[in-house]
Write a structure and sequence with these properties.
The protein is an alpha/beta fold. It has two domains: 182 residues, 2-enoyl-CoA Hydratase, Chain A, domain 1 (Alpha-Beta Complex); 210 residues, 2-enoyl-CoA Hydratase, Chain A, domain 1, CATH 3.90.226. Helices cover 38% and strands 22% of the residues. Strands 23-17-15-14-13-24 form a six-stranded parallel beta sheet, sandwiched between helices. The chain has a five-stranded parallel beta sheet with strand order 1-2-4-6-12.
Length: 507
């Protein structure tokens, strides 16, 4: 009896420990991985390194990989079948190992870049995306290449994919595993063993173009090539319920962090822009690659200078020859133009405080710029709005949020598709148009009659920012596993001090 009691006690401890570990396990998340054009051997190595590093990170639980095949919306076309095949095989292996693989196509995607796209389990396309035209008159596909395309596409997609390189394909409707698909009539008539489980339901070929096909999003969805439509990285992130950090996957390319803190204080003007740019250049000369931008600016600055500095920071995070991680820290209220600098960074951290509320950090406050009935607007809100929308589109933030910062009448909501569970930010009017398609209101992000301001708590709920309970920047360092003593503080150069001297009123 004593042995049994001891065994039961040990078992209870094991179960309790397992329960605690289960509670401590991080929530499932994903990463966005850029596939540069054309696909190269070095690019494939970088993709593998990024995915493997994210999967093995102890504080992450990566279950979804979104491959961005059109960075900055540019067209993509790879001529090398072998390199495209290697990436496609890697993606299929990840899928078979339990990873959800998603291809995001938001530009014209042709030639062999199509191969790793169809290797993904799901395809998401933007409204202006195109995919197809694999065949080329100068470099047609041989039999083995055609077979690999069909094998990669699998039964569900093989018919529409074949039409991308074979103009004579005739697609007819059929049933496969309880769902509708489209298959090549010729293969049905030839009793292709690959279609043994497929039952034809309508042998009349659907109308198609006379040549090889280049599909738009509507046609791709109808033919079961594409699963959903999203226009921005932010839309994709929202649709799959991923965190904002998912878009910034492993920006350092596996290199060790060398951190630096850059203070951005005062009015955003040309002088501040040039000062920060010099500090960034100095940091790069020291091989520092992790930038903590502490933003404590005042309002009423120069919009052109704000956009210029934002572009500089944005390019720092995109420089393929100098891999860098950029983090914005907002410890307090940083009105109007500060959001340019925050949006330009790969990640945002904001002070929320233990309870949130009045003292928490806020960005995107354009009330003074837009004006009220009692107080006229200051400056040119249309210019600021256009530039901020343009910046948001480059960094994956929803332009709808920008519209809400300038339009009091706009109502922004988070909606959910009852059929698929997808979630999306949209306007109230947009939801009314989708109500008959199963979309329902989940929560209100912005009410009518007010301007949207991104407080720390709201930014966190939108998965735009991480939050901390202390204004001390060392707590931000701790989020990234960095000791404060390892962070160098960027100081003004003699040129900055001399410029400040020249700006003194008496001088």
């Amino acid at each position: 009896m004593r042995f049994m009691s001891g065994s039961i006690a040990v078992l209870a401890v094991i179960l309790a420990t397992a329960s605690v570990r289960g509670q401590d396990a991080p929530k499932a998340d994903g990463i966005f991985v850029t596939v540069n054009n054309p696909i190269t051997e070095g690019g494939i190595s970088q993709i593998k390194s990024t995915v493997d590093s994210a999967k093995n990170a102890p504080k992450q639980n990566i279950k979804t990989v979104v491959f961005n095949f059109n960075p900055e919306g540019k067209d993509a076309a790879t001529e090398s079948f072998a390199l495209a095949q290697e990436l496609a095989k890697y993606i299929r292996t990840e899928s078979q190992n339990g990873m959800t693989t998603v291809a995001f196509v938001h530009g014209k995607t042709t030639r062999h870049t199509v191969l790793p796209v169809i290797a993904c389990e799901e395809l998401v396309m933007s409204s202006d995306a195109k995919i197809g035209e694999v065949w080329s008159k100068d470099r047609p596909l041989d039999v083995d290449e055609q077979q690999f395309y069909l094998k990669t596409a699998r039964t569900m997609r093989a018919g529409p994919v074949a039409k991308m390189f074979d103009k004579d394909v005739k697609l007819v409707q059929a049933q496969y595993k309880g769902g509708n698909i489209y298959v090549d009539l010729r293969k049905l008539e030839a009793k292709d063993p690959q279609l043994a489980d497929v039952q034809a339901t309508n042998l009349t070929p659907i109308p198609m173009g006379p040549g090889i096909e280049l599909y738009g999003v509507e046609q791709a969805i109808r033919l079961k090539l594409c699963q959903r439509q999203c226009n921005t990285l932010e839309d994709v992130r929202e649709a799959y319920g991923l965190s904002s950090a998912s878009i910034t996957a492993d920006p350092l390319g596996g290199r060790a962090m060398k951190p630096v803190r850059v203070m951005i204080e005062g009015t955003i003007d040309v002088a501040l822009k040039e000062k920060v740019e010099r500090q960034i250049k100095t940091a790069k000369s020291r091989n520092e690659n992790t930038f903590f931008f502490v933003i404590e600016t005042t309002g009423n600055g120069d919009p052109s200078a704000a956009r210029g500095l934002a572009d500089f920071i944005l390019q720092l995070g995109k420089d393929a020859d100098y891999r860098a991680r950029t983090i914005a820290f907002i410890p307090g209220k940083a009105p109007d133009l500060a959001i340019f600098l925050a949006f330009a960074c790969q990640e945002i951290v904001m002070y929320q405080g233990p309870q949130g509320g009045e003292g928490e950090a806020v960005i995107g406050d354009f009330e003074a710029l837009v004006g009220t009935a009692q107080q006229p607007k200051k400056g040119n809100p249309d210019f600021v709005r256009k530039n901020l929308s343009d910046l948001a589109s480059q960094t994956g933030f929803s332009s709808l949020l920008v519209d809400g910062m300038f339009d009091k009448n706009l109502v922004i909501i988070r909606a959910r598709d009852q059929k698929t569970g997808d979630r999306r930010l949209m306007s109230e009017d947009e939801l009314k148009g989708l109500a008959d398609k199963g979309w329902v209101l989940e929560s209100v992000v912005k009410n009518k009659g007010e301007l949207l301001k991104l407080s720390a708590s709201k930014a966190k709920s939108l998965r735009i920012a991480k939050t901390i309970d202390n204004k001390d920047v060392s707590e931000v360092y701790a989020l990234y596993g960095i000791a404060p003593n390892d962070v160098r503080s960027a100081e003004p150069s003699w040129l900055d001090n001399f410029a400040a001297f020249l700006r003194r009123t008496e001088v």
